[in-house]
Design goal:
Bound molecules: zinc ion
Oligomer: single chain
Number of helices: 3
Helix content: 40-55%
Structural class: mainly alpha
Number of strands: 0
Amino acid sequence: MKLIKTLMAALWISVLLTIPAFAADKTCCEKAKADGKVCSHKCCVAAKKDGKVCEKCNPKQKPDSNKTGGQNK
Ligand SMILES: [Zn+2]
Ligand SMILES: [Zn+2]
């Protein structure tokens, strides 16, 4: 049963490698918020005035963005 142990270890390593990638995927605004501050970027401040979040710095994450192209309706 050594093979299963090796597979489990490999799986764990891939999971552990994935977590920091998610943690590092923070926007400037999220980082500022985590520090208890407000993002000082001009674009973010302007967006906040309008009660929005800066779309430039906080692009909406698409769950699956496989563009085929040329399929605009
Ligand atoms: Zn920002
Ligand atoms: Zn911004």
